[in-house]
Please model this.
Amino acid sequence: MRVITGTARGRRLNELKGFDTRPTTDKVKEGIFSAIQFEVEGARVLDLFAGTGQLGIEALSRGAARAVFVERRSDAVKLIRENLALTGLESGAQVVCGDAAAYLGALRERFDIIFLDPPYADDLLERSIAHIARFDILSPDGIMIAESPAEKELPALSAPYRAAREYRYGRIKVTLYRRDREETT
Model:
């Protein structure tokens, strides 16, 4: 697992031991960042279910202004901080140890990019997508990237949110949701 490009290009990131965390593969990460490459610079990023922090770190390396990493496991939070230090990207980062749903419920800011890659076994992804739309924390023209098993059907959202695109990488599917800008009259 490495940072693909940007200021921390080529840096190897530390990984958690065991099978409790499923890091995004380099192939999937390259696909995600290829799809959003023009939207990262200056963005406010939320890496929910951050695991090792690799998606938020990649965004910071590519010029995101700020990234918030939310992870409930204390060993993963420690690892995210280590990976931020390894890459020299601590200044633009905030690491939160806590439950994703509780964090979303208390949030009072909006993000330009939200990464969602929760454990596949639960319905955390569907609940998180619904929370984000209900609390409306995605900026106008913002993008939400949801990683799931290829066969999983993700929810449709009502305006101003919409599913914009799906990409498949073997057994993994990446769904991009967008929040449209409100029309002004």
